[in-house]
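#structure-requests
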Amino acid sequence: MALFQYLTKDPDGNRKEGEIRADSLDLAAQKLSGGGMLVVKLTEVDTTWDFLGPFLDEVTLSIERFKNRIPLSNIVFFTRQLSTMFSAGLTLERAVQGLALEEKHKKFKKILIDVGENIRKGLNLSESLQRHPGVFSNLFVALTKAGEVSGNLNDILDQLATYLENLDDTRRKVRSAMNYPIFMVIFLSGMIGAMFIFIIPKFSEVYAQLGANLPGATRALVNLSEWMSIHFYTIFFTSIVMMILIWLITKTQRGGFIFDSVLLKLPVFGPLIDQSILNKFCKTFGILLGAGVPVLDSMALLKKVVDNRVYEKAIGDASNYIRDGYNISTALRRTEVFPSILLQLASTGEETGELDSLLDRAADYYFKQVNALVDRMTTLIEPILILAVGAVIALMVVITYLPVFYLGSALQQGL
């Protein structure tokens, strides 16, 4: 979030100065003028060296999401049921309280009870949901607020539930494509570690008793095994510290941008991640525009939805272009990040006035692309990984048993 200094006046003429954080100048102005205040001056503060605040915000939000991990299926069911109950004539308070009583997930049940209590105290639904950022995303809160303002909350909630279901499907497909390779890598690492720490030392003791001259490859393997056995705990704790450091670096602006850039350039997984992000971008943008959310506000929300710093920067640049007077398709094109198919659909949608529906079609296209990539990856990667694992283990076994081929001479030397 950017930092802004402001000067405001209330209806009685009293002046107030201070600082406020917001995603854009327009959002900061809306926050300040929401209470009937007149914004006299609003300027952005240069926070080039102020990296600690956003970094701590990212870490805190990640920890909050980890502590309050709620299955997306539970949130989808809650959203769908809330839409149905509200459209049937129940008040939001009764609907949320009823869903809280039926909820089986303990953490989510506690959160829904709190949401119901806040609604009973006079807060609206969006304000109540906003108090749980680790569970309800900025998009969820923004769409709920748009539904409250426009008066079609039940329709917005129904669209939101459908969107979350599609998002869950996309996420599940991406994870299914990555789970097998990750499992095979972990399995291979575990097998290699077990051989180095437990199996190879046994063979080295036998070879030492026989007094055999080991081949160079076997000798190098034995020396590496001894080093790993001696420094096992150091290697283990260093690996954990390195993973924590990498995770913390990804929470910084520059580190996260570099990490996400590398992800998008991976030879196999990069296109899958890219298509998944574009599916999420198009689907979200279409829903926001269809719900009547202003374009700049929609772009600010999209930055928080894509979960990739490269696209976040591109969306931020496009927002600045739109603020300068460019239309949406031209602004997206100037970032040089978005593909030509999306740009053509956006341009056509602006000309015909059906941008939200064309964005929804683009989201369906990218969803099909994700499905095709997942099918192709599972077809090709599984046999390749099986062959790779077999080759590595076979190589280690051959190197370990290599002295056995010279066992006759080794036994004569031992005698």
